[in-house]
What we know:
Blueprint: E1 20-25, H1 31-40, E2 45-48, H2 52-59, H3 70-78, E3 82-84, E4 93-98, H4 113-125, E5 131-134, H5 142-152, E6 163-166, E7 185-189, H6 192-203, E8 209-211, H7 215-246, H8 250-257, H9 281-290, H10 297-323, E9 332-336, H11 352-361, E10 365-369, E11 376-378, E12 381-383, H12 389-395, E13 398-401, H13 410-416, E14 420-422, E15 452-454
Parallel strand pairs: 1-2, 1-4, 2-3, 4-5, 5-6, 7-8, 9-10, 9-13, 13-14, 14-15
Antiparallel strand pairs: 6-7, 11-12
Helix pairs in contact: 4-5, 7-9, 7-10, 10-11
Bound molecules: nicotinamide-adenine-dinucleotide.
The site of nicotinamide-adenine-dinucleotide has 26 residues, from helix 4.
Amino acid sequence: MDAAASNPALVPEQPAAAVSDLVVLGLGYVGLPLAAEAVSAGLKVTGLDVSDRVVDGLNSAVSHVDDLSSEDVDRMLERGFTATTDPACLAAARTIVICVPTPLSPEGGPDLGAVTSAARSIAAHLQPGTLVILESTTYPGTTDEVVRPLLEESGLVAGADFHLAFSPERIDPGNATFGVANTPKVVGGLTEECGEAAAVFYGNFVDTVVRTRGTREAEMAKLLENTYRHVNIALVNEMAIFCQELGVDLWDSIAAAATKPFGFQAFYPGPGVGGHCIPIDPNYLSYKVKTLGYPFRFVELAQEINSRMPSYVIQRAQELLNESGMALSRSKVLLLGVTYKADIADQRESPARPVARKLAAKGATLSYHDPHVESWQVDGVDVPRSTDLDQAIAEADLTILLTDHAEYRPKRLEEYARLLLDTRGVLRRPDPEAGTAAVPAQARRRPRREGIQVL
Ligand SMILES: NC(=O)c1ccc[n+]([C@@H]2O[C@H](COP(=O)([O-])OP(=O)(O)OC[C@H]3O[C@@H](n4cnc5c(N)ncnc54)[C@H](O)[C@@H]3O)[C@@H](O)[C@H]2O)c1
């Protein structure tokens, strides 16, 4: 495919030999899959990152993200992809996409340091006609109020000399069904022409592009999606706590409610929220709302409830042990799964860490099992790893399942565990080994014996 021919944003401004169709800035969970998809669509892609480790690894065909194998990276290199730490490549880019981290500052507000430093690097090399897109999650107004002025330090004017747009990344690491190509891409341009240029660019490798009125609406769409998840997870977490006291089986209620074909989406309780998005992004929005002089109460409440869940897990663990005449301080506790979600290696903001910290503070002897994590430290202290799952479960006084990795099968857990607290409802799902996909709500599994509980 001749990407340049089909894309007004890709009109050559530089000598053909030096030109990249795309430079992706930040080659992590978001940037690398984007680069891979663009390479597959026939674009000439350069990856720019500040980390020598990341760049050297990629140029040696070693993947560091879950959704791409090293073989995938090898194929990218064969098709002309290169990674570099040299920002000079930006001068030869037709399109530049910024995928750098947007973490929280120590005070809990937005830390746009990587975004501003990326924008400054681009400004130093920006050429007329280039399309610049911000994909990093951030508060409404960032593209226009923070990124645009930095880019314009180049002397070029956004919307006149170069195109500027925001397009949130919606990647769901570990999701085998939805990837870059078949997840609709939201795009908001600084001007109509900027939006059009960005839509045409993504049209090279994304099936559906959804235009918003401007950059702010696209920024807000992402935060709406993540705040919606955050708030609804908090809702079921709060319900889980009082349903336990009321003697209501919430998992059963959720399964029943989920049979309604409209107006309801099922969310499930858990040990807290993790990952780079749900615990962090809503803070970006509440920061922006606070500049108006009032709080974003839904987010604050959701944060309060979700961050209390690790303590609730400890309370339930303690009760489970006490019912068997044991004390947490003299118990061997095995944590199953320490990543923030199933079947990936990403540990960022994982609730396993506060759970482990609280258990250690109460004197429990900890170990963990996780097929995706070879070593695990909490506050600088190594937690011993168990690799034989069945033996580890059998030897622990209490097993706490924190992440529902595929290998944690209900039958296996129930067979070997002395005491088990399942914080993910694995024991309430049909056993995949039983081969039944659609089991009616009333046929859902229940823990089979004393000492086995679901959150
Ligand atoms: N991980 C996800 O599931 C996900 C999903 C949707 C959106 N996002 C958002 O996408 C953005 C990137 O997240 P991620 O998970 O890919 O982060 P990441 O930490 O996996 O990768 C970011 C990369 O950017 C590099 N980097 C940092 N500063 C840089 C700079 N100034 N110039 C060039 N490279 C730089 C880092 O070395 C790193 O390799 C964030 O805003 C995040 O909120 C992430």
